[in-house]
Amino acid sequence: MARWYRLGLVALILLVVWGCGKGRTMTEVNPVQPRFTKADNGVITDSVTGLDWYVAPNRDNNWHQAKAWTESLTVAGGGWRMPTVAELIGIYQKGASPNNMDPLFQSPGVWVWSGQLNNAVSAWGYAFYSGLVGYHGIDYALGRQVFAVRSRR
Predict the structure, then answer these.
(1) Strands 147-151 and 111-119
(2) Per-residue pLDDT tens digits for 23-55
């Protein structure tokens, strides 16, 4: 047993030394790629999901305004829509910023509309400050933000 332990330890040391050879560190050999990257046009690409995101200007939006804005958005070729609740949950990152999302999103909004209606008078959204899903009246705008999303092009 001790022989196998020593053999494994030697192999591990050789791998580390070989991987860090020529003055490189392990980080340089295997750099960590950021999940989100932001292009000059403001499009945020998610390398995990393959989605592109675009943050609306900082203003309160009711659900109708949010839907109209996303459908009329032409940045980077258009094709934008409102996100699903699951997509919003997917970008939640507890502690990444005061609003629990990657700082690239640069949104003061803590509650973001989804494109999913709950019924004829309310729609689902996501509260980034708490990590909770909820719904509000579609005419309610105070503190409600919108993100646009699409499959990566």
Answers:
(1) unpaired
(2) 544 445 556 889 999 999 999 999 999 999 999
143 in the same domain as 74: yes
Residues present in the chain in total? 153
Write the DSSP assignment of 19-34 as a string of letters: HT-TT--HHHHSPPPP
The total number of structural domains that make up the chain: 2
Q: Residue 81 belongs to a domain with what CATH number?
A: 3.10.100
Distance CA 66, CA 56 (A): 9
pLDDT at site 8: 52
How far is residue 124's CA from residue 113's CA, in Å, rounded to a whole number? Answer: 6
Residues 28, 48, single domain; the answer is no
User: DSSP string covering 61-112, please?
Assistant: --HHHHHHHHHH--GGG---BPPPHHHHHHTB-TTSSTTSB-GGG----SEE
Percentage of the chain modeled with pLDDT above 70: 79
